[in-house]
Amino acid sequence: MLLSLTNEPRDYAWGSASLLASLEGRAPTGAPEAEVWFGDHPGDPADVAGGGTLDQITGGSLPYLLKLLAAGQPLSIQVHPTVAQARAGWERELGLAADDPRRNYRDDNHKPELIVALSERFESLSGLRPIDDTISLLGLLGGGEGVARLRARLKSAGDPLRDAIGWLLGGEAQREVDQIIEAVVTASERDDAGEWRTTLRAIADVAKTYPRDPGVVVALLMNHVVLRRGEGIFLRAGLLHAYLSGLGVEIMAASDNVLRGGLTPKRIDVPELLAILDTSPGEVPVLRPASGEVVTEYPVPVPDFALTRITLDGDPVAIDVAGPTMVLATAGSVVVTSAAGEEVALAVGSTAFASADESVLTLSGVGEAFVARPGR
Fold first, then answer.
1. Alpha helices in 190-233 (DSSP H)
2. What is the pLDDT of residue 376?
3. Does residue 48 contact residue 6 with C-beta atoms inside 8 Å?
4. Strand pairing partners for 54?
5. Confidence of residue 193 (pLDDT cuts 50, 70, 90)
6. For residue 290, is pLDDT > 90?
7. Which residues are catalytically annotated?
8. Which ranges of the chain does DSSP label H, i.e. alpha helix?
9. What confidence tens digit (pLDDT) does each residue in 297-339 have?
């Protein structure tokens, strides 16, 4: 069975007013357009051509959620639990109502993510930077009290990154937070920041959107990653991250479990955040496609999903599929054909859904598409 799916953009405040409209070749609505969901998640199941929604067909059984994501402003700094942490948190909160503000866990699943850039530049904060590198960065911020206290915490014994993040978010360090943010803004305007110039300007831009937010200083501890079109990053459980700007294809496990760590008016449960946070520092590998590849795989170490990019130049491309599969058109003209001859012509920004009984799909046309399916 082959179906055509669409959905309306979600109007989160951080959404871009132009990126999705530009992708789809239409006029902007004037409202922020943040995400388009292609899945059977009860929060916003995809619409099926001819009537109904995808969850009515799948029963809510898809192991993944595919999205278009358009960030015009920074998203919240966040982290997702492992399966074990999610199950334990879900059990602890069984007595809380679904809309209880104290609830952290919406389900008992993990939420690993993969984002692939569609815009020519996609900026993110991904993972915690090695401490020695951050101390080097702090050397550009002068000798103010806030910077000195942060530096001292990062040089302490034990788990200095966990200690520093708890201190910043705990509510007792606002004076130091304000001083550090002021120092970042000043340093970002200098011409001698060297290798840190781009990072400092990115954090200063975050501060414009979230002035006085302790998350701005948490962001200062994170890797600033700039993706080019077609490049991706995988975000495992426990990894602190935030998207800053750009358009991308995102796929994740079917979960809504988010613990926030700043850049948001929403609740931040600092003890629970620290309990699931992986403070192992290091760079997050960028997944880069080889030049000229027709089929690009983005390998991820989880069974929930797999994502493949197909670049079409007029020759049909047949792909083997197993399990419920989606084909999302992101450029040009794409036609999806099943082994039985069913055919769906995709407008850019729309998706074809193939049920689990399909084994081969053929993509034709001139353009680009992303194929989402369960992992192997």
1. 197-209, 214-220
2. 78
3. no
4. none
5. confident
6. no
7. 260
8. 19-24, 55-58, 83-92, 131-138, 145-154, 160-169, 174-188, 197-209, 214-220, 270-276
9. 999 999 999 999 999 999 999 999 999 999 999 999 999 999 9
